User: What shape does this take?
Amino acid sequence: MQASGASGLSTWLYAVLPQVSPRVLAFTLYRFEVNVRATATVGFVGAGGIGDSLYT
Assistant: This one.
């Protein structure tokens, strides 16, 4: 795109961002799920938090 005269911002918005956004979204959702699961596990063993709410 830059060879045809596009600016760096245009290249980023229309070429790079569409390619990386699915991976970034997938990784973000995966880490969120891992964190919720870890919090629930810690809560089940007695540290309170979300696990305590789920257990009762």
Notes: The mean pLDDT is 84. The first helix runs from residue 8 to 47. Residues 22-56 form one domain.
